[in-house]
Structures are given as C-alpha cells and as structure tokens.
Amino acid sequence: MSKFLNAEQQELTNEIAALLTDRGETVAVAEATAGGLVSAALLSVAGASRYYSGGGVVYTLKSRTALAGVDPAEYENYRGTTEQLLASLAEAMRQRLGSTWVIAESGMAGPTGGRSGAPPGRTVIGVAGPVARTAVFETGIDDRATNMVEFTTLALRYLRDAIREA
C-alpha cells in the first residue's frame, strides 16, 4: 500500500481501479487545486495503465484551453469556476483523451478566497462519462495543504459513486 494516501483514499482508489478494470473502462483527470494528487492516487495502484488514460493539472485558464481543449470563449469574463464551467472542462478532457470517465476539480485551497467571493475550502467537482454531474463542496478550512488532501478525497469519492451508479 502506498504511504502518501490516507486509509480512505487508498480504499477509494483500489475500488475505482477494480471497477474500471472489471468493466474495461478508463479514467482521465483534469484537476486544479488538488495539484496532481488525484492523478497520483489513481496511479498508485499497480496496473494503473489498464484504466488511467492521463490527466493534467489545469490550474490556469491557459492550461484549461491548451491542455484540456476548452474553448477560450468560455472563459471570457471569468469570475471563478462554476458548475457549468467545470462540466465543460471535464467533457473537453474526456473528448481529448478518449476516456470513458473524467474526474475534474477546481476551487479555492486557501488561505484566501477567490475573486468571485468564494471562500477558501470551496471546490467544484465534476464527472463526465456515462454519468455526468457536478457539485460544490465546502470544507470550511482555510489551510491550503489540508484542503488539497480533502479535495482529493472528495474527488475520488465522487468518481467512485458515479462509476457505481452507471
């Protein structure tokens, strides 16, 4: 077992890996504030190449258009990540990598809030694939590193639940 994941993250990652492998499905990641931790978690399982299509830390608007392929027009007058923008990011990455699923995340890790007035500890998480949905989560925490770990757990849980639902 990997040492950098907490027990819940290890359990979620192993379950996701088993579900995807059993179904012959793949997942890609478009993460921002989690900073690569979601991808690292998914890659921690031996045999990850059977289900992990790739991903990117799309922390900036430029990376979202260049790496994920989101139409730059979607970010005109940008004032923070909305559920609609995140759904678009997830679907763009899914199309770009030809993956069955994408888990996407973007938010405010802290210690301060965002230009839209969103508080630290707020993230938007979305799934694209056979089940598509987004949701806003708030941890109530302003510590950056703690939120990055929490956002990773939330994203893994959200992905696992969507896969189970399909």
Characterise the protein shown here.
The protein has helices at residues 7-23, 37-43, 61-66, 83-97, 144-165; strands spanning 27-31, 52-57, 101-108, 122-128, 133-138. With 166 residues, the chain is an alpha/beta fold. A five-stranded mixed beta sheet has the order 2-1-3-4-5. Strand 4 (122-128) and strand 5 form a beta hairpin.
Question: What does the largest sheet look like?
Answer: 5 strands, mixed
User: What's the gyration radius in Å?
Assistant: 15 Å
CATH architecture label: Alpha-Beta Complex
Structural category is alpha/beta
Which strand order does the major sheet show? 2-1-3-4-5
CATH level-four homologous superfamily name: CinA-like
Concise synopsis of the structure shown:
The protein has five helices and five strands, in the order αβαβααβββα.
Mind sketching the topology for me?
Blueprint: H1 7-23, E1 27-31, H2 37-43, E2 52-57, H3 61-66, H4 83-97, E3 101-108, E4 122-128, E5 133-138, H5 144-165
Helix pairs in contact: 1-5
Summary keywords:
5 strands, 5-stranded mixed beta sheet, globular, 5 helices, alpha/beta, 19% strand, 166 residues, Maf protein
